[in-house]
Write a structure and sequence with these properties.
The structure holds two protein chains of two kinds. Chain A is mainly beta. Chain A contains no helices and eleven strands. Helix content of chain B is about 0%, strand content about 50%. Chain B is built from no helices and eleven strands. Classes of the chains: A mainly beta, B mainly beta.
Chain lengths: ~120, ~110
């Protein structure tokens, strides 16, 4: 059974940093792109970024480029979202996702709530 | 960025009756490999999103066959042939062809 479990969420002040982790299990982690998607309270979905299987390519949404970093550890089946210079508008539930555009493969974690507030 | 526009944004439905959601993209979604990476997602209350349909009309594993997707060019449709109580939630269209991948605003489906 595929499982994605996010951790590391919490309350942080504006300008602060936080690192989310996503522990993957139940599939060959190193064979899949991994992604992060967020959802502000009561709002829609926003696809933040993707990281290639070997970590050699990472894509970012413009509003987080330069502030957020996606990385992965294939030996430990972990993907990370390092968030720096956090803003109030970054308050959201952050989902870890593995997906394939071409076939029936799409799994989401339960989400981690990040609240940016003073 | 590609703008995805859904309609309606609210859809009251009767149990057992059909329902339809439309999505229009601001530009064509044909990838360089010839595929159109257009998807539909369902988010039930209090749950993580779940993909229902990929590449316009392909159902993901475990998705009931009452869900179907269609479309071409810039216009796409999700149809539920007979709405059941478990279908309540918000439905999002999403394009995965052009970066950044973008979602529609969401359509809230509720039972009348």
């Amino acid at each position: 059974e595929v499982q994605l479990v996010e951790s590391g969420g919490g309350l942080v002040q504006p300008g602060g940093s936080l690192r989310l982790s996503c522990a993957a299990s139940g599939f060959t982690f190193s064979s899949y792109w991994m992604c992060w998607v967020r959802q502000a309270p009561g709002k829609g979905l926003e696809w933040l970024g993707n990281i290639r299987q070997d970590g050699s390519e990472v894509q970012y949404l413009d509003p987080v480029k330069g502030r957020f970093t996606i990385s992965r550890d294939n030996a430990r089946n972990l993907v990370y979202l390092q968030m720096n210079s956090l803003r109030v508008e970054d308050t959201a539930v952050y989902y870890c996702v593995t997906t394939s555009r071409d076939r029936s493969w799409d799994f989401w974690g339960q989400g981690a709530l990040v609240t940016v507030s003073s | 960025d590609v703008v995805m526009t859904q309609s309606p944004l609210s859809l009251p439905v009767t149990l057992g009756q059909p329902a339809s959601i439309s999505c229009r993209s601001s530009q064509t979604l044909v990838d360089s490999d010839g595929n159109i990476y257009f998807n539909w997602f369902q988010q039930r209350p209090g749950q993580s999103p779940r993909r229902l349909i990929y590449k316009i009309s392909n159902r993901d594993s475990g998705v009931p066959d009452r869900f179907s997707g269609s479309g071409s060019g810039t216009d796409f449709t999700l149809e539920i042939s007979r709405v059941e109580a478990e279908d309540v939630g918000v439905y999002y269209c999403m394009q995965g062809t052009l970066w950044p991948w973008t979602f529609g605003q969401g359509t809230k489906v509720e039972i009348k």
